[in-house]
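Recall that a protein's primary structure is simply its ordered list of amino acids. Everything else, from secondary elements to tertiary packing, is in principle encoded there. The following example makes that idea concrete.
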Amino acid sequence: MEIKYTKHFLNRLEDIFSETDYNLRYEKGRFQSGYCILKDNKIAIVNKYYSLDGKINSLLEILKQIDLDTSKLSEKNQKLFHDINQTQLSF
């Protein structure tokens, strides 16, 4: 899968989060990696001052780390999620 650094692709990643139990928030902060995951509360926080590339990379990294119930995802998002998990990320 080719990663496209566009606003449309960012919206597709955000759409995956909207169909899960995880809340995605953009907040200011001094996160070591640009994001923070609060697994007990199922909240993913991404630095709102990150560039488009940084936000997309952060969301891709988060999606690879968390356990999602893919049965709640639409067919389109299940395919995207599967493609993301099959892709080797190189930043």
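The chain has one domain: 7-86. The mean pLDDT is 88.
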